[in-house]
Structures are given as structure tokens and as C-alpha cells.
């Protein structure tokens, strides 16, 4: 086997481990505040220490983990302050995305949002989280502003842990209700009813905020 093939295989493994760790943290499979040891992580993901260390350095840059010298790692807790800041930022970004989507998105771009209407609320939670992120990301893309869309998607990535907390207690009926809220927002966007679209977007985010803060009050993951 050539050296280039070995290098490509090693890089693929490191990338895979990073994305698996990131996904497990954002979906709360690795719970906020939990301590992690290299040996345990190596066994869990079936790799050596090197790709684990590389992944953890990247995750530290995203403020998802803390590196604890001689003690391992800790998944960063979800704090009330972080949650407030994220929701404030989300509300500002989504308001701008919705406004621009109403004003400048093509009819075809808005029609393409129909793919988010018929979603089974009983799908596994990780899949639903992915669907939810994709829906809000599609609205950001419809804004026509690439930088705004990129920034919004970065914030949405940070929201996976909060979204998990928001919908995990709702069950399939609750998730179906959230899909219906998405449908109402799509209707308003396609009618280019800016006032209604902004109101629905705000109410949807505020409902999520309330559920998250109710959940944070009941969990021992707030520092």
C-alpha cells in the first residue's frame, strides 16, 4: 500500500472520529458536564489516542469540550448564560433571514421548502434534530445572503443540544406539532406575508426557548 493511500486512510479516520464525537456531544449522547477519559473514548470509537486527541482539540475550539490536564476531558455544561445568548443571536439572525427570504427569494426557492412539510413526528430523535436543523438552514439559504446563511448555520449547529432538550420530552405528538408550525411558516413565506412570517418565526423560537429553560431548571447540567 502506497504512502499516499495510508495518509488518506488516516485522515479519513480522524475526520470520522471527529464527526462522531461532535454528533454525540450535540445530540447529548455524551451528556453535558460528563467527564471523558482517553481510554474509554478509544474503546468507544475503536481508534488509537491520536485521532481522539486531534478531535478533542477541534471540539475545544468550538467550546464543546474542556481539556483537563492529567484528568481527561469534560463535555461543556449547558449554562443559562450560553442558552440566553444563543437564543438572542438566533432571533436576530432568523428575523433577517425571514425578511430577506420574503423580499428576494425566488418562487422556486420558496416552493422547495415544501419538502419540510410532511415529516413523521415518530422518527428517531437524532433524525428529527437533523430535519429541524435542515429546515431552518434552508430558510437561511433562501435569504440570498451567503454570509448570513453561513453564520446562521454555524449558530444552528450550536443549537442541537438545546433542541434535543427542547423536544425530547414532547414525544411524537409534540414533534408533529412542531412540524405543523414549520408548515405555517412556509405558508407565510410563500405568500410573502412578511409580518405573519416574522411573527410565526419569533413565536416558534420563543416556544423553544421556554421548553429549554424549563428543562434546564430540572437538570443538573447548569454550572
Mean pLDDT: 88
CATH class of the largest domain: Mainly Alpha
Structural class: mainly alpha
General shape: elongated
Uncertain runs with pLDDT below 50, 5 residues or more?
Answer: none
Question: And the CATH topology of the largest domain?
Answer: Four Helix Bundle (Hemerythrin (Met), subunit A)
The string of secondary-structure elements, in order, is HEHHEEHHHHHHH
**Count of structural domains:** 2
Strand order of the largest sheet: 1-3-2
Radius of gyration: 19 Å
Based on DSSP secondary structure assignment, what is the total number of beta strands? 3
Strand content: under 5%
Share of helix, binned: over 70%
Query: What is the CATH architecture descriptor of the largest domain?
Result: Up-down Bundle
CATH superfamily of the largest domain: GntR ligand-binding domain-like
- Main sheet summary: 3 strands, antiparallel
Please, how many helices?
10
Distance between the termini: 50 Å
